[in-house]
Design brief:
By secondary structure, the chain is α/β, with parallel strands linked by helices. It is built from 16 helices and 14 strands. Helix 1 packs parallel to helix 4, helix 6 packs across helix 10 and helix 15 packs parallel to helix 16. The radius of gyration is 22 Å and the shape is globular.
């Protein structure tokens, strides 16, 4: 087990005590295991996770057998374990050595195992599970320097995980809120020094002793910050507080200061773990755009991982109206731009399907031959009827020329009971 970039047996520094490092999923257990023993992370609980863990091993070149009630694997024959240690998503240990991902998820300022580093920033409904995305990046064979596309970047999960693996990411979304939060989550490490330098100046504007400044005054002060990435960071802190007021009836000033403090600590965690593990960040290109008409060259993308919006089940415009209004937009005027929320009755579903087809056409066009596209999608209920979106997606994509190579069921937890199951569809684009 040798790695020229670092000593893989060197332990990362222990996370600060205020991190959630006593949470059950992060515990270190000094157990005696053989060098060929591959131990799953403690939070791996579901069948789809076990399926992805096995696909991940195959993609990383490990022959294996399952042992110990499905919690451990044994490597068969001689193997190079370095890619598994550096890249894997579902494994805690390789022999007695902890994986990079085990160290990464300890840098968590929340009590949710999926919200480590900057993933927690802004309460976006229907988020990807970041561990799943990291595994899928491995499964479809993407490596440092390759480019992954997410044409529905949403809260930026694909971008953050690609950045951690040194994979370039093009993230596109029609929502200015999604573009902002995805940029902030990935740009903040490079801009950390500038962000930290402005901390006292910004907080002093909020912590007045007699007359508290209005939200508009704080927003104007943030917009006066000359550095774009630092300005976006403080905008995001403002919008997290706006969300807390709208959804949880919290005090704006207290929420802004508390979340800003936690955001800055999370970025520091990101920078520290990147340095300690010798991570090489991928290049991020997050931009406003339309998945139905991508401004990308034909066959220019190495892989696609995305989840089209469940807009017929979840109204993203209404859900984030408070944040969009704070940014200066008029949600009612934006509806015709968003997939799934334009039109009424049966016409709404027809327009949604037409938009989906345009998006799949574009994905096929920009993906290189012999590369893969992952579409995570589920059947929704609209007008009291089940909409067979999964079947529609498989049929349409295969007619385009994609070949479906995996269809993995995934039970949904935490999506406010809007949907109960989705499918991880892995398509391959063969040569014409």
């Amino acid at each position: 087990m040798q790695d020229n970039r670092r000593n893989p047996r060197r332990k990362a520094k222990k996370a600060p005590t205020e991190l959630a490092d006593t949470f059950w999923a992060y515990k270190r257990r000094e157990v005696s295991v053989a060098e060929d023993c591959l131990v799953l992370l403690d939070n791996v609980q579901f069948i789809y996770e076990l399926a992805l863990a096995q696909l991940e091993l195959q993609a990383l070149g490990i022959d294996f057998e399952v042992t110990n009630s499905l919690r451990e694997f044994r490597a068969l024959g001689a193997s190079n374990f370095i890619p598994l240690i550096r890249k894997s998503a579902y494994f805690k240990q390789v022999g007695r050595q902890y994986t990079d991902y085990f160290h990464i998820i300890q840098r968590n300022r929340t009590r949710s195992v999926n919200q480590y580093l900057t993933h927690w920033i802004y309460p976006y409904k229907g988020k990807f599970h970041p561990q799943m995305i990291r595994a899928l990046l491995n499964i479809i064979g993407l490596s440092s320097g390759d480019t992954v596309l997410d044409p529905f970047i949403g809260s930026g999960t694909t971008a953050v995980e690609a950045e951690l693996l040194g994979i370039n990411c093009i993230g596109i979304d029609i929502s200015p809120l999604c573009v902002l939060q995805s940029r902030v989550k990935t740009d903040c490490v490079e801009a950390f020094g500038r962000i930290e330098a402005l901390h006292r100046e910004v907080t002093n504007k909020v912590q007045t002793t007699v007359f508290a400044p209005t939200k508009d005054a704080i927003w104007d002060a943030i917009n006066a910050i000359s550095d774009e990435k630092a300005r976006d960071f403080y905008k995001m802190a403002f919008l997290v507080a706006i969300s807390d007021v709208a959804r949880r009836r919290k005090d704006f000033s207290k929420s802004f200061l508390a979340n800003l403090d936690r955001m800055i600590k999370s970025v520091r965690d990101f920078a520290e773990i990147s340095r300690e593990l010798g991570l090489r960040s991928g290049n991020m290109a997050i931009q406003a755009g339309d998945a139905r008409d991508l401004s990308l060259e034909e066959e220019s993308i190495d892989g696609i991982i995305t989840s089209p919006p469940y807009s017929i089940a979840l109204d993203y415009v209404s859900n984030d109206a408070h944040a969009l209004q704070a940014m200066g937009y008029f949600p009612a005027k934006m509806r015709d731009q968003f997939m799934g929320v334009r039109g009424k009755g049966p016409s709404r579903l027809q327009l949604y399907n037409e938009d989906m087809m345009k998006s799949y056409n574009e994905m096929y066009r920009v993906l290189k031959p012999e590369k893969s596209a992952v579409i995570v999608i589920g059947n929704a209920t609209y007008m009291r009827k089940e909409v067979k979106t999964v079947e529609f997606t498989i049929d349409y994509c295969e007619n385009l020329g994609f070949k479906l190579i995996r269809n993995i069921d995934k039970i949904i937890f935490g999506l406010y009971n809007v949907m109960r199951k989705e499918n991880i569809l892995i398509f391959h684009k063969p040569h014409s």
